[in-house]
Amino acid sequence: MVDALVIIPTYNEIENVERIIRNVFSLQRDFHILIVDDNSPDGTAAKIKELQLEYPESLFLLEREVKSGLGTAYIAGFEWALERSYAYIFEMDADFSHNPNDLIRLYNACAKGSSDIAIGSRYVTGVNVVNWPMSRVLLSWGASKYVRFITGMDIHDTTAGFICYKREVLEKINLKKIRFVGYAFQIEMKFKAHLLKFKIKEVPVIFTDRTRGASKMSKGIISEAVFGVIKMKFNSLFNRYEI
């Protein structure tokens, strides 16, 4: 039995999705893949269905009617995974900013090490980002420093989205109580795991910005992270934060 599932949310990733799937399936360790597609108008879901004929036992598709945010896509994927027997559940982007080869390193940190969560970290050994303008590097690095300061988490890359969770972590967190829907979702998941005393390990990776397709970053996503983190921490101090 394959014990690891990689969840990849997609919206207009027709330029990347076939390559990322084939890369994951070419690894030395076996992984299953769940694509969570938000009704991409570019035909992403149709391409997945075509590839399912080639990978009928290992490639799965969850189609959603509308684009509802990264966080809700992952929660839908988590719930799908927990209905099955996967022991290790991953988050990964479709655009090759996360190197599929690093999946094995994240897996080993949890399966062979003592970690409950393994984070593919851009900042644990400096700044390991390729092809980003300096302004975006500073924004991302500064955001992680800000979140670390506000929340008290001993994590250098608090906004990272390349992650391996042990099943027990997702079973313990009440996924229906996750409030953030954008990239701040990544912060909230880490914060709840931190409050629950799970062991979190940062595995250094090199993050390479997408070369195909369009970024989904927006000002609203950044605002959610900046102001939501303060509210999240404040509520946790007064036992008003549901984990």
TrEMBL record:
GO terms for biological process: glycolipid biosynthetic process. Signal peptide: none annotated. SUPFAM superfamilies: Nucleotide-diphospho-sugar transferases. Pfam families: Glycos_transf_2 (PF00535). One of its GO terms (molecular function) is dolichyl-phosphate beta-D-mannosyltransferase activity. Belongs to the glycosyltransferase 2 family. Keywords: Glycosyltransferase, Transferase. This is Polyprenol monophosphomannose synthase. GO terms for cellular component: membrane. The keyword Transcription does not apply. Residues 6-173 form the Glycosyltransferase 2-like domain. InterPro entries: DPM1-like, Glyco_trans_2-like, Nucleotide-diphossugar_trans.
